[in-house]
């Protein structure tokens, strides 16, 4: 109730003055960048040392430096959000590492997405999946079953 998801971003009627984006994936990074570019004071909360850890170190380090250059404040090694309190107008975000962020208008939770493939009954077709339900593919987007391909977010690969 004290936060919105990345989908809720598109329902915002006004630009928040101060926003906290929680997440380290491409959705969180993109939202933080857009909000900062529009003029919001933007904080990015990541559980580990940096965002986009799944990318090559050079790319993720460069991205990290650029976000800081743009003025996005990054809260690192937080282990996530402990709780969010609201006085009815502004919010305070308490992080699991003991830090807190006060005077926040909007908190956006963008921890990432999981593939919505359960109803496909991939097991019945013999298609192999990975942790989190992602479909296992090779470099040509082929699954282990001949003639069956998978593309996009359901594969869990970074899209560049």
From TrEMBL:
Look up keyword Transit peptide and say if it applies: no
Q: Name one GO molecular function term.
A: flavin adenine dinucleotide binding
Q: List the cofactors.
A: FAD
* InterPro entries per record: FAD/NAD-bd_sf, FAD/NAD-binding_dom, GSHR/TRXR-like
Query: Listed GO cellular component terms?
Result: cytosol; mitochondrion
Q: GO biological process annotations for this chain's record?
A: cell redox homeostasis; cellular response to oxidative stress; glutathione metabolic process
Query: Which keywords has UniProt assigned to this entry?
Result: Disulfide bond, Oxidoreductase, Redox-active center
The record lists the membrane-crossing segments as none
Q: Which residues form the FAD/NAD(P)-binding domain?
A: 4-159
Q: Pfam families, alphabetically?
A: Pyr_redox_2 (PF07992)
Presence of the UniProt keyword Oxidoreductase in the record: yes
What the entry lists under SUPFAM superfamilies is as follows:
FAD/NAD(P)-binding domain
Q: Which family does it belong to?
A: Belongs to the class-I pyridine nucleotide-disulfide oxidoreductase family.
Protein name per Swiss-Prot or TrEMBL: FAD/NAD(P)-binding domain-containing protein
Which organism encodes this protein?
A: Amphora coffeiformis
């Amino acid at each position: 109730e004290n936060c919105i998801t990345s989908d809720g971003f598109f329902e915002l009627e006004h630009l928040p003055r101060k926003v906290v984006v929680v997440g380290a994936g491409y959705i969180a990074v993109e939202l933080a960048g857009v909000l900062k570019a529009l003029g919001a004071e933007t904080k990015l909360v990541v559980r580990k040392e940096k965002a986009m850890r799944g990318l090559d170190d050079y790319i993720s380090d460069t991205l990290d430096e650029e976000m800081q250059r743009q003025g996005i404040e990054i809260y690192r090694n937080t282990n996530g959000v402990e709780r969010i309190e609201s006085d009815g107008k502004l919010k305070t975000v308490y992080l699991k590492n003991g830090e807190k962020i006060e005077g926040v208008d909007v908190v956006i939770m963008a921890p990432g997405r999981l593939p919505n493939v359960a109803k496909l009954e991939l097991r019945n077709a013999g298609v192999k999946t990975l942790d989190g339900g992602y479909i296992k593919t090779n470099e040509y987007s082929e699954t282990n079953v001949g003639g069956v391909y998978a593309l996009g977010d359901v594969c869990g690969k970074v899209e560049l």
